Amino acid sequence: MQPLQLARSQWLDVITDALGGFGGAFPWDPVCRQLGTQLDAPVTGKFQWDAHGHGSVMAYPFPDWFDLRDVAGRAATVHPLARYYSAHSTTEPLSTAQVSFSGADERTYEAELRACQIENHVWIPVERGSAGVLVVGVCRPVEPFDERSSELAGLAQGVIVALHHHWQVLDDWVAGHPVATGAYAAADEARLTPRQVVVLSLVAQGLTSQAISWRLHISPRTVERHLQNIYTRLGVSDRISAVRLATLAGVVAASSGDGPGG
Q1: Banded model confidence at residue 6, pLDDT cuts 50, 70, 90
Q2: Which neighbouring-strand residues pair with 135?
Q3: What are the domain boundaries of the chain?
Q4: Is the dihedral of CA 94, 95, 98, 99 positive or negative?
Q5: Quick check: bond before 61 cis, omega within 30?
Q6: What is the CA radius of gyration of the chain?
Q7: Nearest one of 159, 138, 224 to 15, comparing CA atoms
Q8: What is the CATH architecture assignment of 4-173?
Q9: What CATH code is assigned to 178-249?
Q10: The whole model's pTM is what?
């Protein structure tokens, strides 16, 4: 496994690429692939389950040597980590070395996982809500996850949770604040993401980076990253030029409406 300093540097690259990338979907693929590399895990993905025991899974990449959806379909009710997170409010990343398989049904399930060569798990809680519990999980055979694995998982959790929250806040704002007809088509031509349109719309209202960070519940540094990516996309070097060009292109209205929280 990798030292923490290298892992931090790699996550910074993931964050930079995610904030500057084109498109609206959360970057689960690069996030999970990075986590799998750091924890030497051949299977990494996201798993969500609800109070009724219904679960959904996606892996990056999807394994081809067993049926992951079939195996994960029983995890919500017989996996010890799923049972633990369902019964406790903790948000700490945990492994099957810390919460082990115990009862007869869990032992049977563990044997099934061992046959698939994924018996050792680390789960990283990302969100709890009306849709259930969402975790990112890594799986590997033979070698249990140790204390260093826990440190790397904790580091990853900070990044993943922050990015996920960032996506939710901006996506919720986009959904609740219709823009002028053709605005997103114009943004698409300029290769601006919906998140960048949100930030640019607030800039057009005259908000500072600090004020935008308060409204969107993100850091001023993240706002500045968005702005730098916007400048690059539009071929400008300052806010005034970016707003002027975006207004002419129809990306933002000449007089924008209220932003989040205002």
Answers
A1: very high
A2: 47, 125
A3: 4-173, 178-249
A4: positive
A5: yes
A6: 21
A7: 159
A8: 2-Layer Sandwich (3.30)
A9: 1.10.10.10
A10: 0.85
